[in-house]
Write a structure and sequence with these properties.
Elements lengths: L1 H36 L1 E2 H4 L3 E3 L5 E10 L10 E8 L2 E6 L3 E5 L2 E4 L16 E2 H5 L3 E4 L4 E4 L2 E7 L2 E8 L2 H8 L2 H4 L7 E3 L3 E3 L17 H5 L3 H10 L2 H10 L2 H8 L4 H10 L2 H10 L2 H9 L3 H8 L4 H11 L6 H4 L6 E3 L4 H9 L10 E5 L5 E6 H6 L6 H8 L7 E2 L5 H11 L3 E5 L5 E6 H8 L8 H5 L1
Parallel strand pairs: 2-7, 15-16, 18-19
Antiparallel strand pairs: 1-11, 2-3, 3-4, 3-8, 4-5, 6-7, 9-10, 9-14, 11-12, 12-13, 16-17, 19-20
Helix pairs in contact: 7-8, 7-9, 9-11, 19-20
Length: about 450
C-alpha cells in the first residue's frame, strides 16, 4: 500500500515537472519571438523609408502614437518622414513593415504636405524618449533610454521602455549598434505614466492619461516620493492626473521644502484647491511656509468659509497647541449608542488618519470625556455612551490643553497620559481641535523633516 502511494506521488510529481518544463519552454519560445520582433525607436529614427521597389524615399524623423486611449499598448498612428526639405506625415496604413532601423511602405503615393501636429498626437522621440516617466509598479521616477515597438495583429504598438545605462551607451555608438534592441531592462508600458505636454510645441489638448488608474492605486506616501523626484513640469502634470483629494493626501506626506516649491509652481487656482482639500492642520503648515503675499494669493481663491477657518488657525502662534491642531473632530452625545457613534465614524473614513478618539459632549457642548477608538471598538453595540464614559471616569479626566499651551508642554502631557493625541479646549472646556502626536514631533524636530507616523506605518 505504501509502495503504491509512493509510486503514485512520484508519477504525479513527474507529470507536474514535465508540465512545468513544457510551460517554461513555451514561455522561452514566446519570449524569443517577442524579442526578435522588437524594434528600437532610437535605432529607427534617422533610418531609411523605402517604397515597394526598395528605393529610399525619405528618412524617419519621428513616430506618432496615441498614448491616451483605452488600449493597454498605444498604437502607432503614423510616421513623420523627411522627404527632401519637407516633413511629411505617413499614416500607419501606408506602412508595410517596420524593420530594425528602417521602414518599408506598401504604397508609392505620398502626401508631401508639411506635417502639422494635430490634437492628441504624441511624438515618441520628441515627447517621450529621454524624458521622465513614472514606473508605477516600481514606484520610481525613471528616464526612457529607448522605446520598443512591436507588431500586434495588423498594427504596430508601443510595448516597452528601456531604462538601462548600456542602452544609452549603445545610442552613442555606430549606427549599426543603435538599431539593435537590448531588452535586458525593459519595463512594460502598462506600468508607465508618461509626461509630455511640456516637451513640444504641440497643442495643449495632448493629455496623457493612460496610467491614471494605476496611479490612483498608489499610496499617498508613494505619490509624495514621486512628486519630490519629478521635475517641475512633470509633477504639475501628475497633480492634474489625480483627483484633488488624492493629490492633497500626497501633498500632506511631502517634505516641507518640496511642498513649498510645488505650491509656488502651481497655478494659484489649482494650488488653492489642493490646500483646501488638505486636513486643516496640514493646510496651515503648508501656508505658514509661504510668504505672506503668496499665502494671501491662495486664501482669496478659496471659499470664504474655508479661508476664514484657516485664517483663524494661522492666527495662533506656530509653537502652540492652537497653531498645530486640526479642527477635524468627531463628537458624540451621552444618550447615543456605541453603534450610532460607529456609524458616524464610518462616514469619516477618508479622515481616518486624523481621528484616534471621540469627544463626548454634554448638552452645552462641554467636554465630558475623550474616548479612544480602542475603547469604542471593544464596547457592545447597544452600550450607551454615558455608560462607557462612566466606566472610563475611574481612570481620571481626559488629557486636554489650551490653544496657547506651548508645544513642549503639550509633548510632556502627551507622554505622561500615554495617548496619541490631545484635545484642545477653550476656557469653558469646549473642544476647539485636536493636536496629534506626529504634529508635535514635526514642530519640535524640524531638522529631521516631517515625521509622519502614518507614512512610517505604510
Amino acid at each position: 500500500m505504501f509502495t503504491l502511494a509512493t509510486n503514485t506521488l512520484l508519477m504525479s510529481t513527474s507529470a507536474r515537472l514535465r508540465g512545468r518544463r513544457v510551460q517554461l519552454e513555451r514561455r522561452a519560445t514566446a519570449s524569443k519571438a517577442v524579442r526578435a520582433s522588437l524594434v528600437s525607436l532610437a535605432g529607427l529614427i534617422g533610418g531609411p523609408v523605402t517604397n515597394q521597389a526598395g528605393e529610399e524615399v525619405g528618412r524617419v524623423v519621428d513616430v506618432v502614437a496615441r498614448l491616451y486611449g483605452a488600449e493597454p499598448y498605444p498604437p502607432v498612428t503614423g510616421l513623420v518622414v523627411r522627404v527632401g526639405r519637407r516633413h511629411a506625415f505617413l499614416p500607419a496604413d501606408t506602412v508595410e513593415k517596420v524593420h530594425s532601423g528602417r521602414v518599408a511602405l506598401r504604397t508609392a503615393r505620398l502626401d508631401l504636405r508639411e506635417y502639422e501636429r494635430r490634437p492628441g498626437e504624441v511624438l515618441l522621440a520628441r515627447d517621450v524618449l529621454d524624458h521622465q516617466l513614472v514606473d508605477v509598479d516600481g514606484v520610481q521616477v525613471t528616464r526612457a533610454a529607448d522605446l520598443y515597438l512591436a507588431p500586434l495583429a495588423d498594427r504596430v504598438v508601443l510595448v516597452g521602455v528601456d531604462v538601462s545605462l548600456p542602452t544609452l551607451l549603445r545610442r552613442l555608438g555606430p549606427r549599426r549598434w543603435q538599431s539593435r534592441p537590448t531588452p535586458e531592462r525593459v519595463l512594460d508600458w502598462q506600468a508607465m505614466a508618461p509626461f509630455a505636454e511640456h516637451a513640444t510645441d504641440g497643442p495643449a489638448q495632448v493629455q496623457l492619461r493612460a496610467s491614471r488608474g494605476a496611479l490612483h492605486r498608489l499610496r499617498p506616501a508613494d505619490l509624495a516620493d514621486l512628486l519630490e523626484d519629478l521635475g517641475r513640469a512633470e509633477r504639475q502634470q501628475l497633480l492634474h492626473m489625480l483627483e484633488p483629494a488624492a493629490a492633497a493626501d500626497a501633498l500632506e506626506e511631502m517634505e516641507p521644502a518640496e511642498l513649498e516649491n510645488l505650491l509656488r509652481e502651481a497655478e494659484p487656482e489649482h494650488a488653492a484647491r489642493l490646500v483646501e482639500e488638505m486636513e486643516p492642520d496640514e493646510a496651515v503648515d503648508a501656508l505658514r511656509d509661504l510668504h505672506e503675499d503668496e499665502r494671501e494669493r491662495l486664501l482669496v481663491r478659496m471659499p470664504a468659509a474655508e479661508a476664514g477657518h484657516l485664517r483663524r488657525l494661522l492666527a495662533y502662534p506656530e509653537d502652540t497647541a492652537g497653531g498645530a491642531m486640526t479642527t477635524l473632530l468627531v463628537t458624540a452625545r451621552r444618550e447615543q449608542s456605541v453603534a450610532e457613534v460607529r456609524a458616524v465614524l464610518a462616514a469619516q473614513a477618508e479622515h481616518r488618519t486624523e481621528i484616534d478618539a471621540i469627544a463626548v459632549l454634554d448638552d452645552d457642548g462641554r467636554l465630558v470625556a475623550d474616548v479612544a477608538l480602542f475603547d469604542l471598538a471593544v464596547a457592545e453595540d447597544a452600550t450607551k455612551v454615558a455608560d462607557l464614559t462612566g466606566w472610563l471616569a475611574q481612570f481620571g479626566p481626559s488629557a486636554t490643553v489650551h490653544p496657547d499651551t506651548r508645544l513642549t508642554e503639550a509633548a510632556e502631557q502627551l507622554v505622561a497620559a500615554r495617548v496619541s493625541s490631545l484635545l484642545v479646549v477653550d476656557d469653558e472646556d469646549r473642544p476647539l481641535g485636536r493636536i496629534l502626536a506626529d504634529d508635535v514631533l514635526d514642530t519640535l524636530l524640524p531638522e529631521s523633516g516631517r515625521l509622519h507616523f502614518r507614512r512610517f506605518l505604510q
